[in-house]
DNA sequence: TGTTAAGTGTTGCAATTGCAACATACTATA
DNA sequence: TATAGTATGTTGCAATTGCAACACTTAACA
């Protein structure tokens, strides 16, 4: 798994961060991250921790828009958030590196190998990250809760090669991920059980079809 | 707007493509692109043309999963498609460059400035592309057609700074983009008109609120 | 310019969903 | 282990949506 500093020595990493004028920020568990940090023209690197970006719907429900974890890169990629009602929360103690995108692009010493390695790493990380986005779009474009669920199951099952799926989060979070009402999700899962498509024990779901 | 060969001379571009063992492929308008090309472990660059990746739903409806246009980069980012029922179609005459991801990562002459520029460009392109993905997720996570429409309107309006929105595609395509039934979309637009939220003339939609 | 295909508008109806309200189960911790 | 807080299960009901069918309009092109 690539991280932004893969194949860069600690010494060169420090030098690079200095030359790029990087900021290092720490957030305690369950503190909110100022919007100005998320939606400015910077590349952010989550060194460690866990951040959720959640949209607050007018009726009090939430939608999970983005999760950021160790080694994730975010940036102008989420600048569309400027116009939205959202909260970014560090759910764990979190350490961020913030680098102005322009200082990355216009870095003077272009020939430095550690700089080039850094860019290559960023590219690889974004390439991987794109998978998650596409996967979610693939799921969200299904039109019924049942089909969203089945798409989620199938993609997950294909990924692990197993008919057993271990939910990595709560059913509440699953409902947010699928962007559907929790109780309606619960109902649909009940139907799928009754019709013999799946078997559910706690957070383990077993696919019984195909 | 960055393209993969920004700030690289034609001569160096050719050298780079040769060293990376790149394939160049042409597709005529309205021909399908073999899946093996889309979902292998390569980075694809759309030199020119327009590709749609569409999922075929069992009931005959479609979902637009991805659009690729001039200078777009795609790659292992869409490898999840392997498991899905989709068709990739060149809607215009299209020229593709295909490069094995490994040969990019393991490129021997790491110090070549054109190579480093190339990676930097790929990074910037993916960073921009991520915006579209996030934007769409932002929209798709709205739970009603009305809210999806309004989110779409708002984000578009914020982007252009205008209350007038020119649909860049048909209402059929809009329905696919929002992942909702076309006739239900049509009905909802009618309601929005009747309630005075919007005004519609052909493909121009004017926001009357706020 | 006539013909055909594609896009758009409309509506009844059944299926699905969100919402609200409440019951029950689980989990952390004082 | 008692208790509070969170998660999950359930259900009636109203709102929303998908679906199908058909009419009408616009665009493409021979």
Kindly summarize this structure in a few lines.
The structure is a homodimer of 210-residue chains. The first copy, chain A, has 210 residues and is an alpha+beta fold.
Structure in words:
Two copies of one chain form a homodimer. With 210 residues, the first copy, chain A, is of the alpha+beta class. Chain A has two domains: 10-133, Jelly Rolls (Sandwich), CATH 2.60.120.10; 142-207, Orthogonal Bundle (Arc Repressor Mutant, subunit A). Helices cover 40% and strands 26% of the residues of chain A. The first copy, chain A, has helices at 10-19, 35-38, 101-105, 113-140, 145-160, 171-178, 182-194, and strands spanning 23-27, 31-32, 42-48, 50-56, 62-69, 73-74, 86-90, 94-100, 164-166, 198-201, 204-207. Chain A has a four-stranded antiparallel sheet with strand order 1-8-3-6. In chain A, strand 4 (50-56) and strand 5 form a beta hairpin. The longest helix of chain A has 28 residues, at 113-140. The radius of gyration of chain A is 20 Å and the shape is elongated. Chain A starts with 9 loop residues before the first helix and ends with a strand. The first copy, chain A, binds a DNA duplex (30 and 30 nucleotides) through helix 7.
| SSE sequence of chain A, one letter per element | HEEHEEEEEEHHHEHHEE
| Low-confidence region ranges of chain A | none
Query: What structural class do you assign from the helix and strand content of chain A?
Result: alpha+beta
The residue-averaged pLDDT of chain A reads 88
Main sheet attributes: strand count, strand direction, barrel closure of chain A: 4 strands, antiparallel
In CATH, the homologous superfamily of the largest domain in chain A goes by the name Jelly Rolls
Helix proportion range of chain A: 40-55%
According to CATH, what is the class of the largest domain in chain A? Answer: Mainly Beta
- What is the tally of helical segments of chain A? 7
CATH architecture classification name of the largest domain in chain A: Sandwich
Strand order of the largest sheet of chain A: 1-8-3-6
Named CATH topology of the largest domain in chain A: Jelly Rolls
Largest interface: A-B, 50 and 49 residues
Number of strands of chain A: 11
């Amino acid at each position: 798994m690539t991280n932004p500093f893969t194949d860069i020595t600690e010494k060169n990493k420090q030098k690079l961060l200095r030359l790029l004028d990087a900021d290092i920020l720490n957030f305690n568990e369950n503190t909110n991250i100022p919007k100005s940090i998320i939606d400015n023209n910077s590349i952010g690197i989550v060194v460690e921790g866990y951040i959720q970006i959640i949209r607050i719907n007018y009726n009090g429900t939430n939608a999970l828009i983005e999760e950021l974890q160790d080694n994730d890169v975010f940036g102008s990629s989420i600048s569309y958030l400027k116009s939205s009602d959202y909260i970014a929360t560090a759910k764990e103690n979190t350490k961020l590196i913030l680098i102005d995108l322009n200082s990355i692009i216009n870095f003077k010493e272009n020939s430095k190998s550690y700089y080039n390695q850094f860019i290559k790493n960023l590219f690889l990380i974004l390439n991987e990250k794109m998978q998650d986005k596409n996967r979610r779009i693939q799921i969200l474009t299904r039109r019924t809760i049942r089909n969203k669920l089945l798409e989620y199951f199938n993609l997950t099952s294909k990924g692990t090669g197993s008919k057993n799926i271990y939910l990595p989060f709560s059913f509440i979070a699953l409902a947010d991920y699928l962007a559907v009402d929790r109780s309606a999700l619960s109902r649909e899962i009940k139907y799928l059980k009754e019709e013999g498509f799946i078997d559910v024990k706690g957070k383990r779901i077993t696919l019984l079809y195909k």
